[in-house]
Each structure stands twice: as structure tokens, then as C-alpha cells.
Design a protein that fits this description.
- Two copies of one chain form a homodimer.
- Chain A is of the alpha+beta class.
- In chain A, 38% of the residues lie in helices and 18% in strands.
- Chain A has 19 helices and 18 strands.
- The first copy, chain A, starts with 37 loop residues before the first helix and ends in a 13-residue tail after the last helix.
- Chains A and B meet through strand 9, helix 10, strand 11, helix 14 and strand 16 of A and strand 9, helix 10, strand 11, helix 14 and strand 16 of B.
């Protein structure tokens, strides 16, 4: 194969800010693959979820909105523009950079409920400009929000300031998106942090390499954002989470610069890279990242398995990890998610009668093989040499058998590959039609995984009327795995914020009290802060604040996020 | 195989402090495997290194020494003993805990040059005792040095205090050495930090598991020490460095406790585990560590290859890493080290005439295979299932061929396995005979590895008269590898400290200026501090000090080490 893992999908996205969707995922002309089948989707959901009466929920037209006044003087604006000429104060830029892309953000954007906006949005071209901007902001006590793709779903890029701060500066990094160097001997590449996923993989792919970081946000997020939020891509089993990919980096802070050394490994005190990864803009602006890169794999095989239950599927995942078998991805949907995705995938392909016959036929085969009616679908991704891939698949098939797993061939994998970055687009359409949808994610060791799965599901179901609660495992390790919940509910158009707050709060309380991570790969931002601070307890919080105060004594960097 | 990787060597070490060697490596009855052949060794070194006239350098008898007076009052001692009854102020305990096991330490111990001693050595039994001890020490402004196996070779456990501190408390953790829990489902185990390597592997091995951390100090170092110094074991290619093995941990500080959550992965801000790993006792006392464990491998194969040069061997290592082939260990000696180890391994086995004939015969085979006179020996360790091991070996043999590597079978591997923890004992004997020996280690990305190798070698050779300078690669990664230098020199009995200081300083200056890590796996301690602080620059140093001040505002924890 040896091709860029993304090239076959390449939608040639135009990232100019006005072309990107303001209050939803994606950009003009880049939409949900089944958007022309939305009526069928609704019918499908009707039978799946018993939709009942839904309230239409159109967005308030953007043109009718009035933004709060700028809190910067003309002198201040021109001082900023003197440092960095591409700096804008128009309403569109301010609105686009006011929040991220969470359900909560989209709700507020659609219903004109945003209260706080940046006063200026700056697109610097160099780290020198950034250093000057931070010095200036520090001298004026302005808050500074670093902004990449803006795809945060936890309030990580929301415009915030401390009470004593006068204004908010947003630093958009996307004009700093160059490949600075590629070292084929050491297999490392140094990029400016504002580079989007597709461009990064294209530049590496042309030289025969890949980074291997493919989060669902891949098309609309940047390297700097991945690092700042400590993200994880769909192929993390092979390539690792972003923190494993970082060789070294550069952080510009109000008090100066930190540039870690390009080294493969070291025993030199606390790991500075691992403090900056996950710092979510609260310590400074990540300007450059050197990452470890890999040769493009010789071949790629994405296959499906059917398990009689989510439990057996999780047991299978654990066993594969305990045996150290090389895979790129193990992605297991629980019974509800499996059924929905299966039905969605069939939409628009064939007549519904043919589908029914075909499904019954497949069910017959599954029954004979001991896989009952409630199926849990697992997708297994394998990348590597022909020999490696076949040897791993061989071992995996044996393990799957011992958990009553049924090998379903490459078709489910191919179907997933085509649509793997597409699900966030569906939210736009659901929301238009009165259906709210949010996701929650956590991680937990295997000893407590079922306990957490059931506890969180129960908490969500009992807290509010929902349409569905589904879950999948998308990242797994020797000691545990992630759980990713998708919850849909009839939108309460009168109190959409209170409805969301209650759901989020109930679910995160459950995750926290059952010992799950406050976040596995989305980060903390504003939305998880309350629980994060509880996990830190007073001791760690004080220490982390001490670290920050060495770099940002006035707390101008992304104030209010994380521990800041 | 499925046996504990250490059981075949088990020397049943008695760790009582009086049984351990005070001024050298090891314990009574546990010595260098060739110690009965020392005359032959000397003859061998004579021809290898042209020893010339050496000065005998006997240690000053321990009994004749007088220690400085205790700086604790009787009341203070009894207050400490009330918290933790196993607390001692005798000369032996104070001397044993005054320094670690570096060449510099051993020199000073042998020549009675230690200036600073702990005033009391405490063996707590619980974290509650430690918490009380730290509170007490903080209230009295006493320095506190956490101490595990005491095997630091960088001054990491040296008794130090700030000028304004009255006395030094040493907390020896080795009485806290229990397995607290083993979670077979999540493959994690929680230990108290004071457990020595052999006991830890024995407890895991009985249940079919291994941690897989086997540093050369394995027999005389503890889990807490590995974590505090951010160490790395000989099988790191398979099991990772210690920071990768840590799932979570507990740190007791003067201001309270940090207990990180048992989780497989998380995106929850800066990684607290990775701040505490490598903190070298400066933030608090690591009391518990939860590690990821692995099933004991089905089989194990350690084989040798001969390369025509160190350069070709390094190129081979890089290629194996770039192809992501699963190995446990790749260990490559440069030409000088290869020749010496080869000759050492043959000592005492057969008559010298037979040896000469055999060597000539082997050389003949090597010549035919294109491996010239200057050979570089590589040991490759493979652990796993029969299939995995064979498949990896197969791929490795192909790569080796393309770098003119000659497969030498299992004999070199078996020989290394038997003696792998034994080299530090040789230092004792060399030092008795007027030969100084020290080691230096660093890491570097592949693009600069030869440049660093040559630069450091040249700096050492030009700085002082040496007997030999040898090097090996023992840890490798996708982006680079470690370099481990062993330098021998005729001991300058009149100025041994100045001689060492000059060598250390010259070599570390070279490492630093050529871009190598100040340490790959030994840590910073006192000996590397000067260069470490330079890599931090003012910005990071200030931030790290800020972090520490949240936990240890009076700087009582291991003062003078790292950034403290």
C-alpha cells in the first residue's frame, strides 16, 4: 500500500475562517456522508429510539447578533498590530474564536448565549512575534488564549479572563504551519505547531513517513492542539498517544522560552515534555514540536469481529493486550451502538426488503457460530509488513474464538475507514431536528471496567429522559482501556443549557466516583475542571500553580482552565 | 522457559547493612566471577592496556576513622525515635548512608575523604511514620535524604544540607518492601518502594509475572530508587524504561501526600507521574508504586552477532528500530570493548594455547564472511512466544546481513546472561591494584551519534593519560540510542579526586556541547547538576523550583540535588 493513510479521503478543506462552520463541525461543502438520506436516518432513529414529539430548534441567525464592545483602546490595538500585523477585531473572528466545538459550545452559538468574546484575534507568523505579544499582554494584564483548530470539546479554548484582567487576546496559530525539518536518520520531524492534520500527514507521506496520530478531529485540529490537550488518535495501539510521539518541543511563555533538547530518552529530572504536553495553553504557547515519525506501513488490514456481548469483546481486547500482540486499533461498540452503526451503514445502499433478508441470513450464520442476537462489533486495525499483519491476525483470530468471536472479514473495516472522521457532522443535523447529542469519555483499569460502564450508563439513564446511551472502547492498553459514551436526548428547547449541565454533571460525578479518569483524550478545559481539581487535591494543585507562576506570574495564559 | 529471569542467578543476598560492602559494590561472599583469576586478568590488561607502573592504593582501615559529632540533641533523637523506633546514630550507619556507589564515592570512602554524614538513619515501617518524620524535620529545618539501595552513581543520595539547616536525616526505605496487591486482571502490582530487585521479581515470578526492569544495579537497588532516578533496565526495548512501567504512585511530602490514580491513560493536564519519576528525592519520599506487569515470556533467546565495525553495528541497531522489530535488548560494544570482553570471557576456561588456535579458526571464518579484524560484538535479546522470537530473529538476521553482520549463535548471549550484573564488582579489584575505572552515559539521536561518540572519546583521551576508553550502546529507540563509556586510567594516588574531577568535567562538557543528554539512565544528583541546570536555563529552573516550593517550601528534601 505504502500510501498516506488520509490521501484517499482528502476533501481538500479550505480553512479560511469564513469557510468553516461557525456553530457546528466542518466547513462549507464538507458534510455528513449520509446527509442526503436524513429522512431515512430519522425513520431509522424513530424505530431505534422512539423519538416521539421533537421540538424544532433552528439557530438564531448570525446577522442579528450584537457583540459586546471592544475593551481595547485604539492605541492598544495598533500596538498589537505593530507586533503582529494579522490581528482582527471584527465580529466574525471574535465569534469564531469565542468557544470550541463541544455540544455546549454549539448550543450557545446557535442560541446566541455566548457572553465572553476575545477582543482581538491575532495570527502571528513567528515565535518572535508571540514572545513579544506575551510580553505586551503581560505588561497590560490581558488574558491570552492560544487557539489551534479550535476543536476542543471541553471548553479548552473558550475566551476567559480573570476578574482583574481588562481584555482577551486570542492567538490563532494556524498561520504557523510549516515543516521546519525532517531528519530521516533519526526519524523525527519538526513542525510549527499550527499545522492541521491533513497537511502534516501529506508532507510526511510525500517522504514515505507518517506520524500516525489520527484523532476523530484529525481534519480540523492541529499538532499544537493535540499536544496541548494530550490527545490520542484512533491508531494509538501502534503509534501511541501524542505524549509518546513528542520528542521535544518549544514553549513561549510570558517569562521566556523553554526549548527541550532533541533526545531519544533521558533521566534528567522531572520530564519537562510531559509537563508541557497537556498544559492546555496555561503555561505558554507551544510553537514548535519535534515528533517521532514512522515509515508508512507496507500494508494495512482493517477487519471486523462479532462478539456475543460487549463483555466478551472487552475480555478479548484485554487478552490481546496482555499477549502484547501488535495491532493499530481495537474498537469495540457495545450492543446498542453496534446495532445503530450497522443499520446506518446499510442506509441508502440497498432496498429495505433486501436488507432485511440479508440481515436474517447473516443472523443465521451467527447463531450457528454461537453469537446470539445481541452482537457487539469489534473493528481491528492492523498496519505493518505483510508478514506482521498476517501473523498478528492469525493470533488474534485464535483469541477471538476463545471468546466466541466471529470473524467478519474486511467489509466492516473498509466501511469504517471511509467514514471514520465523519460522525461529528451528524450532530449538526440532529441538533437541527431537536435531538441533542453529547459524548463523554474516560479510562479505567480492567478490574473496574464493567463496574464503570454500568455505573455511568445507569447514572445517565436515571438523570434525564434520553433517547439512547451507547458506548465503545477505542483505546486499550495492557492495564486498561478507554470508554467513550454517546448520549442522545430530546432537546429541551426552553432550557437547553440546564439540560446539558445536569447530564454532564451527573455523568462526570459517576465517572469520578467510580474511579475513572476525568478525561482519557479530550482534556480538562473549563468543563472538567471541577472534577480535575478534586483529583489533584490541595497538594498537587499548589505545586502545579507554583510551576505555572514561574512562567506566567500574572496568570495571563488561558486563565480559568486546568489549575489556572 | 516461563521462569523468573533472575532465579538462575539468585545469590541469596543478605542485605543487612553490615553485610554490604561499605566502600565498593556488593556484599560479603558476592563478588566478581573471575576474582580467583585476577592475576590472569592483570596479565590480560597488561597486554591490552600497557599498564606500566601502577601505584598500590589500599583503603584506609575503617576502624581508624573518626566521624564528625552529631548535630542532634538527645531530645531530638528521642523525638525521632518516638515517631520511628528503628533510628540509628552509630558510625557505621552514618558512613554507609553518607554517599552512594559512584567511583567518586568509593574513592572518598576508601581514602577517608567524606566530609558530611547524616546525623541519624531512620528505617520507617509505614508512610504514616514518613509523613510524621517530614513534618518534624520541616518544623526543625533538618535536611532529609531518601535512601533506597544507595546505588546512585551520580551523588543522588549523598548527605547534603543547606547552609541554614542544622542536621541531616537519612530515611532508608528498605524496611518497606512488601507487595501490597497484585491485580491479575489489569496486570498491575503495587509495591512499597523499598523493595530490592530480586525480591520484587521473585514475588511476581511466583504468580507468573515479571516487571522486566533489570538495570545492572538490579541486585542492589530498589523500586523507589529506579523511579526516583528515572532508570532503565537492560531489557528496556521490550519492557520500556521505568517511567513507562509506572501506572501510578504515592509521594509523601512535607506539605502532604500526592497519590496519583490507578489509570491506564489520561489527558488530565501535566502528567504528575512523570514529574515525580526522576524527582530524585527532591519533592518528597516515594512510598508506593503501582507498576504494569507482564506475563513471563514463553521463551527467551539471547544471541550474538559480529559486525565489522561499531559504525555498522549502530546502523544495524537503527534499522531494527526503524522497522519496529520486537526485541528485548540490543547491546553493541565498540571494537575495544568487544576485544576486552571476548578475552575476559575466555579467561580460566581453557589453556591459552588452545584459545589462540580457536581464535585463529574463528577469525578465519569471519574473514571469509567479510568481517575484518576489528569486530564489534552485538548481543540481541529476544523474549516472547516461540513464534514471535523466531520471527523476530529471522527478520533481524536479514537486516544484520545487509550490514555485514555475522550471526554468532547463542553462546555469546548465554555467557553474557550469566555475568550481566557482575561487572561493577570488577571495579573493587581494579581499584585495589591502582587502576581507576569510571563510566559515563548519555543518549543522542541517530543523526549525531557518531559525532558524539568520537567527540567524547577524543575529549577523554586528550584530557589525561588513560589506559582505555571503551563504549557500548545498551538502549535504543526509534529516534536514537544511549552511549555508555567505560574509562580506565592509572590511579593518581596523590590527587585521586582532582584526577576524577578533571576527567568527569571534560567528558561531560563534551557530552553537553555535542548535544547529548546529561544522563540517559543514571540521573543527575550532585555530579551532573552543573550541566543539568544549564540545560534548564533560567525559565525551566524557576518553574521547577516553583513546583517544589508547593510541596517542600523549606527545601528540606534532598537539598542541593537537581534544581533544589
Amino acid at each position: 500500500m505504502n500510501s498516506n493513510f488520509y490521501s484517499e479521503l482528502n476533501p481538500n478543506i479550505d480553512y479560511s475562517r469564513k469557510n468553516l462552520r461557525l456553530d457546528g463541525w466542518g466547513s462549507n461543502g464538507h458534510d455528513f456522508f449520509l446527509k442526503d438520506h436524513f429522512l431515512e436516518i430519522k425513520n431509522l432513529l424513530e424505530s431505534e429510539w422512539k423519538l416521539g414529539e421533537l421540538q424544532k430548534s433552528p439557530a438564531i441567525p448570525y446577522e442579528t447578533r450584537v457583540l459586546p464592545k471592544l475593551r481595547l483602546t485604539k492605541l492598544e490595538i495598533s500596538a498589537i498590530q505593530k507586533i503582529s500585523p494579522n490581528a482582527y477585531t471584527d465580529d466574525y473572528e471574535r465569534t469564531f474564536h469565542s468557544v470550541g466545538k463541544s455540544y455546549y459550545d454549539v448550543l450557545r452559538l446557535r442560541f446566541n448565549l455566548i457572553k465572553e468574546f476575545p477582543d482581538i484575534v491575532i495570527y502571528p507568523k513567528s515565535k518572535e512575534e508571540i514572545a513579544k505579544l506575551l510580553k505586551y499582554a503581560s505588561s497590560k494584564n490581558f488574558a491570552v488564549i492560544p487557539f489551534g483548530g479550535g476543536s476542543s470539546v471541553v471548553g479548552g479554548v473558550e475566551a476567559t479572563k480573570s476578574r482583574n484582567q481588562k481584555a482577551i487576546l486570542c492567538i490563532d496559530l494556524t498561520k504557523m504551519d510549516s515543516l521546519l525539518s525532517l531528519d530521516e536518520t533519526s526519524q523525527t520531524a519538526t513542525f510549527q505547531s499550527g499545522i492541521y492534520g491533513p497537511k502534516l500527514e501529506k508532507l510526511l507521506g510525500e517522504r514515505g513517513f507518517t506520524l500516525g496520530h489520527f484523532p476523530q478531529s484529525f481534519e480540523y485540529s492541529t499538532l499544537g492542539g493535540w499536544v496541548a490537550a494530550r490527545g490520542s488518535g484512533q491508531q494509538s495501539s501502534r503509534y501511541g498517544r501524542i505524549e509518546k510521539m513528542v520528542n521535544s518541543l518549544e514553549l513561549v511563555t510570558p517569562e521566556g522560552e523553554i526549548k527541550t533538547w532533541k533526545l531519544p530518552a533521558y533521566s534528567t529530572g522531572p520530564d519537562l515534555n510531559q509537563i508541557i504536553v497537556g498544559s492546555e495553553g496555561t503555561l505558554g504557547v507551544i510553537t514548535e514540536v519535534t515528533v517521532k515519525i514512522h515509515k508508512l506501513p507496507e500494508t494495512r488490514k482493517y477487519v471486523g469481529f462479532l462478539f456475543p456481548s460487549f463483555t466478551q469483546g472487552v475480555n478479548f481486547i484485554r487478552e490481546v493486550n496482555h499477549n502484547g500482540i501488535k495491532v493499530s486499533m481495537l474498537r469495540l461498540s457495545d450492543e446498542d451502538e453496534s446495532r445503530l452503526f450497522g443499520n446506518l451503514a446499510n442506509l441508502g445502499k440497498t432496498s429495505s426488503l433486501y436488507r432485511t433478508i440479508k440481515q436474517k441470513f447473516i443472523q443465521k450464520i451467527l447463531d450457528v457460530n454461537g453469537v446470539g442476537g445481541n452482537k457487539s462489533v469489534l473493528l481491528c486495525g492492523l498496519d505493518g509488513s505483510e508478514e506482521e499483519v498476517n501473523s498478528s491476525l492469525n493470533r488474534i483470530q485464535k483469541i477471538a474464538k476463545s471468546f466466541q468471536g466471529f470473524y467478519a472479514g474486511e467489509k466492516p473495516g473498509l466501511s469504517w475507514l471511509k467514514t471514520r472522521y465523519n460522525m461529528p457532522f451528524l450532530r449538526n443535523h440532529l441538533l437541527e431536528n431537536g435531538i441533542g447529542v453529547d459524548t463523554l469519555e474516560t479510562s479505567i483499569t480492567y478490574d473496574k471496567i464493567f463496574y464503570l460502564y454500568e455505573g455511568v450508563t445507569k447514572a445517565i439513564r436515571s438523570s434525564m429522559p434520553i433517547l439512547s446511551s451507547m458506548c465503545h472502547v477505542s483505546h486499550s492498553y495492557i492495564d486498561g482501556a478507554s470508554l467513550y459514551f454517546t448520549i442522545t436526548f430530546p432537546l429541551d428547547i426552553k432550557n437547553p443549557i440546564a439540560q446539558w449541565t445536569k447530564m454532564k454533571s451527573t455523568a462526570t460525578d459517576a465517572i469520578f466516583s467510580l474511579g475513572g479518569s476525568v478525561s482519557h483524550h479530550h482534556g480538562i478545559g473549563l468543563d472538567h475542571k471541577k472534577w480535575y481539581i478534586k483529583t489533584l487535591e490541595a497538594t498537587s494543585e499548589k505545586a502545579l500553580k507554583g510551576f505555572k507562576s514561574g512562567l506566567d506570574p500574572k496568570n495571563i495564559m488561558n486563565p480559568g482552565k486546568l489549575f489556572s
